[in-house]
Design goal:
single chain; mainly alpha; 2 helices; extended; disordered N terminus
């Protein structure tokens, strides 16, 4: 890991892709049970299901942020969902 940037520079055999990283999370017993049950139903390991759900959540979050930024105009105005500018309160 590069200390100045915080970006992991490890890559897989020169492909330019970062290798997967192992993380540890703590969830409630109920959440763990639900994840195990869903993993069995989908034919996924607990690790694979957790990684899939995290990645999916981040993609949705990224799309939501892009949609929100498309709604905002300049610093002086907000474009409402109807398309009409609305002044920001000062």
């Amino acid at each position: 890991m590069n200390a100045s940037s915080g970006i992991n520079k490890d890559s897989d055999k020169g492909t330019g892709f970062l290798s997967p990283k192992r993380i540890t999370v703590t969830v409630s017993a109920m959440t763990a049970q639900k994840l195990r049950k869903r993993g069995l139903a989908e034919g996924r390991s607990l690790s694979n299901l957790a990684a899939f759900l995290l990645e999916q959540s981040l993609e949705v979050d990224s799309r939501d942020r892009k949609q929100c930024s498309a709604v905002v105009g300049t610093e002086d105005e907000i474009i409402t969902p109807t398309g009409f500018p609305a002044s920001l309160p000062v």
